[in-house]
Design goal:
8 helices; single chain; alpha+beta; two-stranded antiparallel sheet
């Protein structure tokens, strides 16, 4: 396995096939993917330059660039200053299938979770009030930036009813699960969630918090959580890094 920062080398025995109906850029893309999946090119290793690929495979620079650009967009590679490196694998999220805390999900994947509290206070939000079924007014707002192995993964704003949950404002949610606190303090168990998700582009705030370029792809998710009596409890808006997250959904007929 290549070590962090090591220059990866091209296998000279490999030849791209010009006589099959598979684009050369795609063949090169599959070659790079194969080197990553076999661990020949490890996380953090520097892939060969565009010119090196051109010389070795006798292909044009636009062909090489298309293969690399697609892998960067998909999160397999990371583009830096004058170099492209193998990226860490995306965090596979299961939160579309199960009701689970972020910390528990990361721990199950052998990743180290961390939380930075951005806001814990009182705020008005008309959409959250509507979803929670209360008149527009004060809400408890918990805004967190969540990390996996010290990389920011998701920025999430959570809204709850102020009148019945104002004492949550005194808690430190850096290492505390919100769902655990709801169960411990109010005997509320989150038993059902509705989620809406769509592709979006990172704005200036997303760029700053998630450490991505403005305009980078993010997964924008709105969640409505319900208790064991099907009463609305929590409304949240989350923004997941597109280059670090992938989601799996199972559907039963």
């Amino acid at each position: 396995m290549a070590e962090l920062g090591v220059q990866a080398v091209i296998d000279e025995a490999v030849v791209l096939n010009r006589y099959i109906p598979v684009p050369l850029y795609y063949q090169l893309k599959q070659y790079i993917v194969g080197k990553i999946e076999s661990s020949d090119w490890g996380v953090g290793s520097i892939i060969p330059t565009e010119q090196s690929f051109c010389n070795e495979f006798s292909i044009s620079r636009p062909t090489v660039r298309q293969a690399i650009n697609e892998l960067v967009a998909e999160g397999s590679l990371t583009r830096g200053y004058r170099k492209v490196t193998v990226a860490k694998p995306k965090v596979a999220g299961s939160f579309f299938n199960v009701v689970q805390s972020f910390n528990a999900e990361m721990a199950a994947k052998n990743l180290t979770p961390k939380t930075r509290i951005l806001t814990l206070g009182v705020k008005e939000n008309s959409e959250a009030s509507e979803k929670l079924g209360i008149p527009t007014g004060n809400l408890v707002c918990l805004e967190r930036l969540r990390f996996a192995d010290d990389e920011p993964i998701v920025w999430v704003e959570t809204y709850l009813k102020y009148d019945s949950m104002s004492d949550l404002l005194s808690l430190d949610f850096t290492d505390v699960s919100l769902y655990a606190m709801l169960e411990e303090r109010y005997n509320i168990t989150i038993s059902r969630v509705d989620r809406m998700f769509e592709a979006s582009a990172a704005d200036s705030r997303d760029s700053e918090l998630l450490d991505v370029r403005k305009g980078s792809p993010i997964c924008f998710v709105k969640t409505m959580s319900y208790d064991q009596k099907d009463n609305p409890v929590e409304f949240s808006v989350a923004r997941y890094r597109g280059d670090k997250s992938t989601f799996h959904v199972s559907i039963l007929k």
